[in-house]
């Protein structure tokens, strides 16, 4: 933790075995270390809803239902979109949590790689 | 009216046949604009040096090779830019003294034109090396950093339906 963006690039070039790439999915079993396994993420908005709302592809993530609510609210309350501050806040919080989850996944992947390297070393010695 | 004025103009054939005369009149040409004949004897040389206001020892006419300079002196070519700006010139804007003879190419070496006697602070090869050094130096930095690009420590965004299961960090039950 506490890495700067530049350190990440440096580590990915010089220590690729313990540094996950930002463009590759995680390689370990997601349930390692969880006795009962982890809760799955749930997609609430349906494909039909998103198609109907003409959501761009990059917005069809796990926060899409908040975005749909926010847009509907804006449409209903126009010209007073400030009335939708609650919906906007909820949506942006969801996006923040999503980013946080990606950061956690990265750190989990990195620590698991470090652990694997340590185990390999002890086995070798 | 226009046709009357047109008829008053000199005929074109006359203008064509007397081009030298017309140019001379239009440019206010007079005999003093033209140098004298090339000086052959010492007496002629002394007279020419006196005419141009320079010492006989310093007087050197252009070679008589058909250039048409006649007895005009071959003066050192010094640009106005290279002359002392603090000297009390009679004509500071031209850096010229009263009655000082002008070089034949004087109109090319004024302050607003070319400086033939320019001394560079750095030699030209050094300046070229500076330019190329900056270009390729920055390219080298770019090429080195291209291998290790910085990035935020996050994994790719998770989308439903991309063929893999996504999990929160909460345990089941």
UniProtKB/TrEMBL annotation, chain A:
InterPro entries: NDUB7 (IPR008698). GO terms for cellular component: mitochondrial inner membrane; mitochondrial intermembrane space. Keywords: Disulfide bond, Electron transport, Membrane, Mitochondrion, Mitochondrion inner membrane, Respiratory chain, Transport. It is a peripheral membrane protein. The keyword Iron does not apply. The keyword Nucleotide-binding does not apply. This is NADH dehydrogenase [ubiquinone] 1 beta subcomplex subunit 7.
Automatic annotation (TrEMBL), chain B:
The chain crosses the membrane at residues 124-144. Keywords: Membrane, Transmembrane, Transmembrane helix. InterPro entries: NDUFB8. GO terms for cellular component: mitochondrion. The keyword Transmembrane applies. This is NADH dehydrogenase [ubiquinone] 1 beta subcomplex subunit 8, mitochondrial.
């Amino acid at each position: 933790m506490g890495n700067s963006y530049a350190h990440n690039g440096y580590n990915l070039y010089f220590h690729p075995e313990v540094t996950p790439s930002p463009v590759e999915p995680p390689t370990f079993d997601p349930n390692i270390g969880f006795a009962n396994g982890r809760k799955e993420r749930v997609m609430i908005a349906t494909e039909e809803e998103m198609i109907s709302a003409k959501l761009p592809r990059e917005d069809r993530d796990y926060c899409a239902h908040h975005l749909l609510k926010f847009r509907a609210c804006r449409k209903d309350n126009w010209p007073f979109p400030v009335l939708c501050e609650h919906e906007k806040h909820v949506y942006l919080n969801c996006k923040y949590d999503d980013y946080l989850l990606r950061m956690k996944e990265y750190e989990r992947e990195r620590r698991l790689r470090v652990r694997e390297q340590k185990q390999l070393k002890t086995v070798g010695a | 009216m226009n046709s009357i004025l047109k008829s008053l103009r000199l005929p074109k054939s006359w203008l064509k046949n007397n081009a030298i005369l017309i140019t001379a009149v239009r440019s206010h040409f007079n005999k003093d604009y033209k140098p004298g004949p090339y000086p052959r004897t010492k007496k002629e040389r002394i007279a020419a040096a006196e005419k141009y206001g320079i010492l006989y020892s310093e007087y050197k006419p252009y070679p008589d090779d058909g250039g048409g300079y006649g007895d005009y002196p071959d003066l050192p070519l010094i640009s106005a830019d290279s002359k002392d700006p603090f000297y009390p010139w009679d004509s500071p804007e031209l850096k010229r003294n009263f009655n000082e003879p002008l070089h034949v190419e004087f109109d090319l070496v004024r302050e607003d034109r070319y400086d033939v006697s320019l001394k560079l602070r750095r030699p030209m090869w050094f300046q070229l090396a500076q330019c190329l050094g900056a270009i390729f130096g920055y390219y080298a930095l770019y090429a080195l950093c291209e291998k290790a690009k910085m990035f935020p420590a996050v994994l790719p965004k998770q989308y439903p339906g991309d063929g893999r299961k996504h999990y929160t960090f909460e345990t089941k039950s």
